[in-house]
Design brief:
The chain is α+β, with helices and mostly antiparallel strands. The protein has three helices and five strands, in the order E-H-E-H-E-H-E-E.
């Protein structure tokens, strides 16, 4: 397959910031778009990752957003929160279904 510089065949995902939404960290990109992002300041510090599948890019995007939101929620708990003995973390869906479960 030949890829032209304007063919939007890639999905670019970067790290979120505190105010990021999906549209801020995931974009359908061509080679030209990628070049312009780099020229505009995109660096390895934002952990850019390329995907050829939109579905895989979405999984990565939502994973990064959930991780950021979880860390923000934990940091808002303040210094009195005792996490030294924490052994497990879970992320629940709106209906209480476990979406993520891991030992720490």
């Amino acid at each position: 397959m030949r890829i032209r510089k304007r063919d939007k065949l890639l999905w670019l995902v970067t790290d979120p910031t505190a105010d990021s939404g999906v549209e801020d960290i995931m974009m359908n990109a061509s080679l030209e778009d990628l070049f312009n992002q780099i020229r505009g300041g995109l660096s390895m510090d934002s952990n850019p990752t390329l995907f050829t599948s939109r579905e895989e890019a979405e999984v990565e995007t939502y994973g990064r957003l959930v991780a950021l939101r979880a860390s923000q929620a934990i940091s808002r708990m303040g210094p009195e929160a005792k996490f030294q003995a924490a052994k497990r973390i879970q992320v629940l869906g709106p209906d209480g279904t476990v979406l993520f479960d891991a030992d720490l």
